[in-house]
What we know:
15 helices, globular
Amino acid sequence: MTHLTFLEAAVVGLIQGVSEMFPVSSLGHNVLIPALAGGSWARDLNVAAPESPYLAFIVGLHVATAIALLAYFWRDWVRIIGGFFSSVRGLEVRTADQELAWMIILGTIPVGIAGLLFEHAFRVIFGKPVYAAVFLAANGVILIAGERFRTRASRAAVAAVAVSRDPVPVPDRDCELVAAGHGPDARHAGAGAGAGAGSRAPRQRELAEALAADQRLATMGYPRAVLIGSAQILALLAGISRDGVTMVAGMARGLSREDAARFAFLLATPVILAAGALKIPDLMGPLGNGIRGQILLGSVLSGAGAYASVRFLLRYLRTRTLTPFGIYCLVAGLASAAYLGLVK
């Protein structure tokens, strides 16, 4: 029997992709929205129900979310994975890519262990909508407090990032010459060459900024990386955002908001991918019977939403704060808790 309609799958998939990247808790939203909608939604999409395919479905969507993250950061992951293997071969860690690779590994271990040991218990005890509403409000307080009490080091890091960004040279001398009207091909290339150089410039700048960010992250040391990564454990509670608490932890340890977000997304990628991969066998078995088309639709929308969200957020956080997300979580969490308390 089908336990999940295409409309439910589409809504959940899109919410999963967007809210997994935004610091507003994807699991919290996926627990709360069916409860608030009521009817068949509350029945079909109950994360705590025994033998429900819903938990396997939303965790399986993490694979699509992780693929979107890998697609966005693929150049960075090529460098980081290369750094890991070169450090193993050479039995030493010297470069920024090697440092960052081991920071991600060490920062991922605590949440990996906690997830394997406590995920089921946390889901059974705290996977109820009213708890998700309370923790969503708590997530809002964390985000607001993280901005309100940012360390002096974090504020100084923002200024340092701004200075390093302007200007970032584009190392393409031939394009510069042609665009300026000089060089042997200038008369033939004309405006077309200039347009080509202009279209390459933002991407070159983005790559240069990514390299600079990784150089900064590589200097923070392993203890700080483990501490920041351990903050992800709180996200086992529906309503607490993985990326949100990781960003706040990063800012509390002296990272700029933008670098904290980048490190949060890099840390989240292997965790999200592993969590999703563990649930794929469930979806291929009896729990997935009758809903595999819905799974495909939800996955496509989840991946598209995640890619668009991470692209937006990394630009947004250059000049803006986490406070609007915190206010949203606080208001939405309190309102949901009040509503659920009244209807029960």
